[in-house]
Every structure is written in structure tokens, then in C-alpha cells.
Write a structure and sequence with these properties.
Peptide Deformylase; globular
Length: about 140
């Protein structure tokens, strides 16, 4: 189901809690909402649709990739980027890393470890900031 975008900075500033197998509907809702906003959005965290769970979805080509309870285990290649967010107005400067290794669960709660680089790594880092209540 397509959900409205949360723009309440008080709610967006709260830390997210780990997701469980009972949260699979949130994954579906995130994918549907990302698809709806695909013309100007490449990733979403669950708090962007009003749910403070550690779930994100990003677009990899035509495929939406969900990550449940992701953790960055390695990072390198620090740089500064300008980013925007559907939940906020304008752009802001942020520190990101070119290469990251992430441990996460997929939509079936199977565990994975994967390396991401460049723009995809930046998207994941942006969405993971949402988990910590960090507003860019």
C-alpha cells in the first residue's frame, strides 16, 4: 500500500527499533511507496512512512531492494555530498563513504553480507541515518 511521506521532524528524529518477522507488511508498503515516488526518490527508510523500524528499501536499476536491520561493518573513502530527502525541504551537506560493507536481512529474514559502492552506498547510508534519527 502506498503510504504518505512523513514530514514531522519530531517523529523523524526518533531512533528506530529492530524489525521482526511480524513487520513484513512494512517492507511491502515501503516498496509500493518507493515505486510511487520513483521519479524523484531512490530510497526510503520506514520512518519516512511513519514506522520507526530498521527497514529500508532502495532502487537498484528497476529492482527495489529491501534491507532489514542493516549494519555497516566496514567503510572507506570518506567524502562530502549534497543530499535531499522527500521528508525534508532543500539539500544539505553530509559526510559519506564511497565503499561500505553491510550485514542485513532480506525480505525473508535471511542474512547477507554485501559490499556496496558509490551512489548505492550513499543511498544506504542516507536511509540508515534515518534509523538513528539523523536529519540531513
Amino acid at each position: 500500500m502506498i503510504k504518505p511521506i512523513n514530514r514531522d521532524t519530531t517523529l523523524l528524529s526518533q531512533k528506530s527499533i529492530p524489525a521482526t518477522k511480524q513487520d513484513t507488511e512494512i517492507i511491502t508498503n515501503l516498496i509500493d511507496t518507493l515505486e510511487f515516488y520513483k521519479d524523484h526518490c531512490v530510497g526510503m527508510a520506514a520512518n519516512m512512512i511513519g514506522v520507526n523500524k530498521r527497514i529500508l528499501v532502495f532502487q537498484l536499476g528497476m529492482i527495489p531492494i529491501p534491507m532489514v536491520n542493516p549494519v555497516i561493518t566496514k567503510k572507506s573513502g570518506k567524502y562530502t555530498a549534497k543530499e535531499g530527502c522527500l521528508s525534508l525541504d532543500g539539500e544539505r551537506s553530509v559526510t559519506r563513504y564511497k565503499d561500505i560493507e553491510v550485514q542485513y536481512q532480506d525480505a525473508n529474514f535471511s542474512s547477507h553480507t554485501q559490499i556496496f559502492t558509490e551512489f548505492i552506498a550513499e543511498i544506504i547510508q542516507h536511509e540508515m541515518d534515518h534509523f538513528e534519527g539523523v536529519l540531513i
